[in-house]
Amino acid sequence: MKKIILAPAVALAFTGLVASPVVAAESTSAQSASTQTAKQKKVDAEKAAADKKKEEAKKAAAEKAEAEKKAAAEKAAADKKAKEKAEAAKKAAADKKKADEKKAAEDKKDDAKKPPKKVDPKPAPAPKDEDKDAKDDDKSEDKANPINASVQVTSGEVTAEELAEEGVTVKVTGLEKGDKVSAKSGLTGPAVTAQGSTATMKLHSANEVKQKRVNFALQLERPGTQSVTETSVVPLADESEAPEVDPTVSLSTDEISQSGIEDDGIKVTGEGFTPNGTVNVVGGAEQSPFATQEVTANADGEITATLKYEAEKKLPAGDYAVWGVDQGSNTNSPAQDFTVTEDPVIDPTVKVASKTISLEDFKKDGLKFSGTGFSPDGTVSVKADAVSQQSAAAPQDAPARADEDGNVEGVVKAPASFEAGTYSLTFIDDVTSAASNSVEVTVTEDDEDAVDPIDASLKVDPKEITAEDLANKDKGVTVTVSGVKKGDKITDSLTGETETAEADGDYELNLWYEGNPDNLEVGKVPFTVTIDREGTESETLEGNINVVAEDGDDDGDDGNEDGNDDGKDGSDDGDDGETEAPADASFTVSPKKIEAADFANENKGVTLAVENCEPGADVHFEVNPKGINVTAYENTVTADDEGNASVNVFGTSSDVSAYVGAYTATATCGDDTMKDSFTVTGGANGGGSDGGDNGNAGNGGDDGSQLPRTGADLGGLTTGALLLLVGGAAIALTGRKNKFGQTPTSF
């Protein structure tokens, strides 16, 4: 058996069958719109599949034509080569014959010149085999050449289905013109007659083929010689089964707004589709999809897509679904539901922390604002329109951003070129361009000579003085007035004289009584100090001078009715010669500086404490903010049996930054009014470690434990605290009573 050499494989595309759509019969009356839509979708899908297969068939036909063209070219080249070989052989045979004839003629001529030999006549010998063979050789030139051909399958590897339907191309070489080639076994096909040295034929499988290769045999016939049988093999390719299609899709969210589906769309991912196949991703309701996107699955059958709603009107809010249609298998994935929500109604409303602000503060710290009704997560900008003649500019450097509920808080800062005047601020929703209500704000000129309000206090030294010393101009008492400014006019009620402060800080007055010291009684001598400052209201401070008796003085009262001490009883009438005046009430504020977070903590805050008040007397406390939008606090408590009273003041709003600033604290006990101050800072951590509401009992202060509170905590609106709306939030100062310790250091 001869060795068969297979030519390089030429791949032929297989064109599958296209199944015609079959639709179950329905009565006209029962056919619904959804069925018609489904039918139309199926027809469209089948049409797309048919178009695809048509393209594939067209491509396969082109490849087949190219292969046949190549085979024809190879056949022509082989025929030409065989013809040239035959002609060369024929010429060589003719040359050999001519040479033989020439040689034979010369031999015959030589034999004629020789004298004949005389020989005895003998019987003619029988012819030898060599002579017979020689005669046969002389006749061999007229016999046909034996067949020496080879078979090649030029179609390469095919499937069993392709072998049955399209067949394979078989090329036979080494033929002569007129040779007949026919299928003998294995495959069938029409016989062909060689027109040259090669012949090409198309063979098919007659029966269903299940093996991996098909052996076949060809019968080759040539006149004048014995026919031969040539064999070859057709290898069969495995018919891989189509991958199982089980498509599913997933969505990036199950809820999206009307504007979201228009602007960003909904992200879709999927898997289980035909690898490298076409997939239609559909979004909407079954009968009315709002978007369709055609994508191609990757080699793993995965897809990604983004569906957007593109129309003039908004997509109605409601429930929708997304599904994928695998075009290769005409299979739909399960639908994934999602909801389109209505866009919120944009109706922005804004409040500002203050309607008046200085130009310097507007540029440096800005004006706080808060608002509602903006686009969720959208940006907010602001514009300023001049009400007066000053030029207007947009004061906000960068837009603020609303939260998910459309609420916004921020600070508006003026640019360097901004001028004083009255402005109408309008806040713009950048998403919808909706404008808020206009807020009129007055920006005042920066006044380098601006006058601070008077915040002063006084202290008397010594705390006790005799009437004689008080009436002595060179002695008297020293009253220190704290918190004065240079140029302040200070007038006391005892002397009636007015003095001018030469510097900021403390100013000392020397006060005495202009009169007969005998007219002064032991006890308190009230007086006032009035401070006048240009550009602001005057302030009058009240104080007391504690007058005591001279050492050794007594009233001579020995208990007799005449009122004279006769000295006979050898005893004192109870007057030891010195009348003890009550101690001055004192006022303590602790701590003097506290961070906002601690000030808004009811367990900390600032403690206001008074000592040496009349037991059972009312003690009135006030706290007044300086230039910030926090309402003043006031409360009246009753002094305990020792004449002590206190309250703890703290903020109640979650917006602790609203409390940052300076405060004046005042305590009034009877005729005594005492002042002090404290500052709330904007630090991140709680402060007040130097005081606060520690509630120490004052019994030596060694255990640091807290005293129990007396009375109810004063908090919220039930305490009588006044509220002020700052930036839309309720800001208030409130307080609670503390049990006063025995000494001021316990606070």
Structure commentary:
- By secondary structure, the protein is an alpha+beta fold.
- It contains 7 helices and 42 strands.
- Strands 9, 11, 12, 14, 15 and 16 form a 6-stranded mixed sheet that branches.
- Strand 14 (318-326) and strand 15 (331-332) form a beta hairpin.
- The radius of gyration is 60 Å and the shape is rod-shaped.
- Residues 1-33, 388-394, 554-581 and 684-747 have low confidence and may be disordered.
State which percent range the strand residues make up: 25-35%
- The helical percent reads 10-25%
Question: How many runs of DSSP E, i.e. beta strands?
Answer: 42
Biggest sheet descriptor: 6 strands, mixed
The low-confidence parts are 1-33, 388-394, 554-581, 684-747
C-alpha termini separation: 120 Å
Number of discrete helical segments: 7
- So what's the overall shape? rod-shaped
Structural class of the helices, strands and pairings? Answer: alpha+beta
Average pLDDT, rounded to a whole number, is 76
Rg on CA atoms, Å: 60 Å
List its traits:
747 residues, six-stranded mixed beta sheet, single chain, alpha+beta, 16% helix, five-stranded mixed beta sheet, disordered C terminus
Task: Please specify the SSE layout and strand pairing.
Blueprint: H1 33-113, H2 129-140, E1 150-153, H3 160-165, E2 168-173, E3 180-185, E4 192-193, E5 199-203, E6 213-221, E7 228-235, E8 248-251, E9 255-257, H4 258-263, E10 266-271, E11 278-284, E12 289-296, E13 303-307, E14 318-326, E15 331-332, E16 336-341, E17 349-352, E18 356-358, H5 359-364, E19 367-372, E20 379-386, E21 400-401, E22 408-412, E23 421-429, E24 439-444, E25 457-461, E26 464-466, H6 467-470, E27 477-484, E28 489-492, E29 498-500, E30 505-511, E31 523-532, E32 539-548, E33 586-590, E34 593-595, H7 596-599, E35 606-611, E36 618-626, E37 633-638, E38 645-651, E39 661-669, E40 672-681, E41 723-726, E42 729-737
Parallel strand pairs: 9-16, 18-24, 26-32, 34-40
Antiparallel strand pairs: 1-2, 2-5, 3-4, 3-6, 6-7, 8-10, 10-13, 11-12, 11-14, 14-15, 14-16, 17-19, 19-22, 20-21, 20-23, 23-24, 25-27, 27-30, 28-29, 28-31, 31-32, 33-35, 35-38, 36-37, 36-39, 38-42, 39-40, 41-42
